[in-house]
């Protein structure tokens, strides 16, 4: 949930929580009230002692406000709209239950994800399967329950048609398309049928035991103008399908709704300016061994795009969607074109629905200096437990000083449990103005969207992190998510 302007009282509390750890170039995280309520007292320490480190805490109720934001934008423009929560962004079943309560659909990427949704009462018409690789068992499950399958290639179509013929069932399909023409070039993608090369696919579909329910696409990144291009091309395919006798009812624009993790834009800009200076040798490093975060130094300049999420960006979520629907194509807004085509607009947000829904807590186990003299603070977790496919999570953690013993101010790096030189939990150099002690807790804020589970690994046979649901209300109760209790899931 996008944070509101903090009051002076919350500003004071925030400064207290942040005083024990900050980046050498600070990147202060947006914090939700349910998170900060847990920073005081002994509760988090008791929970980590009981359930282990790291521990994921989740609060599913923030999902509703996030969903309401984008739904309202569509409603204001009269667009028939349905969001499908991207299950891949977080494995906890509490979010499936919350999606049901919010009347959202479920975007699934595996047989287990689909079966868990069915077991929890999600109706098949509220499930779409977008798995990148679809084994026969997965396809049979979708066929048996009439779950819509976003098909990606000719081999998938052939297998689905064969299974449908064998069983006498009709497959429900969404055609995933890509390769859109945008501003004079073709948008690259490894997913979907090409909008130019594969148009003849529509002729083949006529004689197959399939029902084409809609058009699907997903674009990497957060460029709103590219989504406009995708929607325009998808509307063209809707017309082609109807000309062939099909009756598609929706366009699914995938996920990728932007959010912002940080409170201050100037901190984001300052960080990259100083990072460039450090790469050019104009100041001391602010990342471990001057890590370039995806950029390169060529001659006397820094080039390339950072390999990190844009942790501060604008517009986000609702305003971003509004900009897409309000864009005019040949004098007609995208919203009106969708309405005139009489199709439902669907989307599959993950990270943006998980905004404000989780945090990860880990215990400090040691402090030491490496051969370069850098202080390393070792946590009971590994980097796959707070990381996606990019180089780093560029958000300041919160340190809760509950450990015992003395400690002096220090500057150093958070490191994890895997036995590799690259096992850093954050590549950014951190300041600990009041020191850091064995037994202190480190909180990584806003990790529910992808960061908890997308790369999660139990190499070295470490146990996976437990996932604890924070209940609403004054009782302050906590219970393990059903995903951690297979017999009850």
TrEMBL record:
Pfam families: Orn_Arg_deC_N. This is Diaminopimelate decarboxylase. It comes from the Bacteria. SUPFAM superfamilies: Alanine racemase C-terminal domain-like, PLP-binding barrel. Its cofactor is pyridoxal 5'-phosphate. It comes from Neorhodopirellula lusitana. The keyword Protease does not apply. The lineage of its organism: Bacteria, Pseudomonadati, Planctomycetota, Planctomycetia, Pirellulales. Residues 80-267 form the Orn/DAP/Arg decarboxylase 2 N-terminal domain.
């Amino acid at each position: 949930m996008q944070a509101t302007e903090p009051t002076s009282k919350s500003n004071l509390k925030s400064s207290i929580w942040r005083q024990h750890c900050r980046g050498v170039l600070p990147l202060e995280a947006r914090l939700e009230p349910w998170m900060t309520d847990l920073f005081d007292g002994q509760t988090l320490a008791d929970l980590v002692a009981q359930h282990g480190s790291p521990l994921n805490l989740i609060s599913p109720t923030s999902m509703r406000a996030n969903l309401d934001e984008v739904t309202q934008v569509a409603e204001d423009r009269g667009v028939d709209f349905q969001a499908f929560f991207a299950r891949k962004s977080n494995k906890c079943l509490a979010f499936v239950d919350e999606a049901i309560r919010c009347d959202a659909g479920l975007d699934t990427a595996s047989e287990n994800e689909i079966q868990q949704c069915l077991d929890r009462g999600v109706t098949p018409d509220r499930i779409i399967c977008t798995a990148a690789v679809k084994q026969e068992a997965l396809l049979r499950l979708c066929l048996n329950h009439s779950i819509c399958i976003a098909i990606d290639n000719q081999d998938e179509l052939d297998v689905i048609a064969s299974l449908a013929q064998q069983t006498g069932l009709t497959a429900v399909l969404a055609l995933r398309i890509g390769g859109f023409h945008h501003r004079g070039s073709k948008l690259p993608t490894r997913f979907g049928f090409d909008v130019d090369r594969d148009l003849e696919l529509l002729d083949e579909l006529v004689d197959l035991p399939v029902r084409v329910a809609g058009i699907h696409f997903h674009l990497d990144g957060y460029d709103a103008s590219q989504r406009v291009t995708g929607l325009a091309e998808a509307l063209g395919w809707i017309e082609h399908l109807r000309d062939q006798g099909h009756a598609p009812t929706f366009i699914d624009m995938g996920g990728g709704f932007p959010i912002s993790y940080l409170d201050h834009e100037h901190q984001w800009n300052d960080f990259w300016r100083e990072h460039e200076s450090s790469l050019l040798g104009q100041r001391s490093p602010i990342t471990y061994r001057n890590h370039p975060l995806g950029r390169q130094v060529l001659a006397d300049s820094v080039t390339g795009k950072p390999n990190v999420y844009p942790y501060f960006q604008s517009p986000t979520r609702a305003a971003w969607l509004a900009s897409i629907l309000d864009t005019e194509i040949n004098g007609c807004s995208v919203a009106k074109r969708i309405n005139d085509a009489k199709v439902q607009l669907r989307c599959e947000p993950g990270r943006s629905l998980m905004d404000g829904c989780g945090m990860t807590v880990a215990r400090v186990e040691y402090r030491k200096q490496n051969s370069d003299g850098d202080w390393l603070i070792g946590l009971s977790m590994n980097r796959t437990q707070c990381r996606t496919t990019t180089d780093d999570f560029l958000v300041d953690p919160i340190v809760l000083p509950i450990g015992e013993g003395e400690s002096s101010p220090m500057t150093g790096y958070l490191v994890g449990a895997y036995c590799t030189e690259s096992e850093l939990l954050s590549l950014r150099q951190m300041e600990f103005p009041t020191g850091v002690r064995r037994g202190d807790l480190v909180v990584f804020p806003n990790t529910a969207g992808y960061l908890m589970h997308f790369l999660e690994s139990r190499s070295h046979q470490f146990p996976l992190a437990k996932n604890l649901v924070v209940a609403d209300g004054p009782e302050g109760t906590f219970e393990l998510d059903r995903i951690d209790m297979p017999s009850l899931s």
